[in-house]
Amino acid sequence: MDTSISSTGSTAPHSKVFVLDGYLQSKAWPELAGTWQSLLEACELVARWNDTSASPRCLALEHWLCQQLGWEPCALSGLSCWPLQDSAVASAGLSAASHDALALNRAPDPESPAHQEILLTPCHFYVRLDHVGVSSLGDQPLDWDESISLRHSVSADLLEWSNWFDSEIDIEIRSPMHWVLKINKRRIEIEGCSLALAEGLNVEQYLARGEKAKHWRRVLNQIQMIWYQHSVNIARADAGLQPVNALWLGGSLHPGSRTVKRHFNYQTQEDYLKGLERYTHSEENRQAEPLLLMKLNATQLRPETVQHGIERVIEAIKSRGTEDSIEILLCSDHDWEHYRVSQLQHPTRPGLIQHLRRWLARR
Fold it and tell me: 343 versus 170: which is more confidently predicted?
């Protein structure tokens, strides 16, 4: 759970945005009704959004961020590639063969957007009676040598895949769990979504869409066959780990203009938000608004953890400067509600009014 909240000693007016990701569904919990009322009675609703699409493309937080930045809504997972270290530093200790293969690995090029770069995440597709699902590798990720070995096994097929797409495609490795689909010759119409949006669900409505999506499904079929008896997966099976049998097509590394409507200082450990800050960094003397992410995943979503997070936001509101503004974003996977804090009701004020009423009643 990411619940870091920092304060500043500056007395100059400033704004803060508190993002309570994963908290929204708990608004309906009876045991938290009083806690939520304590927070929301001090707020005015700015906007809300609900994703009713049959084929979602982005998480609620991604949708809100795109709106604030002035971008079209899209997956932002590709930005997780931006904070990654250069391969020369990150690949220390690799075998000689792997070092040679890392000639493929280059940092994102912000000045050359003529090509497309889309995040690929090694993952596991599984079959159930009525659907195909996807899961991340979680705490069982690939290491450098494994990822490079898997990448090398598809090298001979890249030319054929390029012909399918009527372009020139390549696959690069930025880190063992961050691969990149590069489209170098002609832009193609294809759109992915964040793996976090699809994990554990029927993948059918979350797979890539667009004019060339059917060709990406052909690529997935070939990858599954190539990797089925790959030495990496044989070793993983012997160790009781899930096989790696697919690459999930995620968000673009260049999701929108680098000139944005709002600048945020993202206070979080989320890779894609750290990458977003780097991607939208401006040398202009423009103040960035602190955005503090407080995130609860499904296993952390309990009344006591929600209450603790809300109470910390309330304390931050009480201690704000008189000219400071605070915004609050409540999110689930498919919904968000955006609030602006107006005035927190302090317990001393009603007490004074009641005292005055009693005094007048005695006269």
Answer: 170
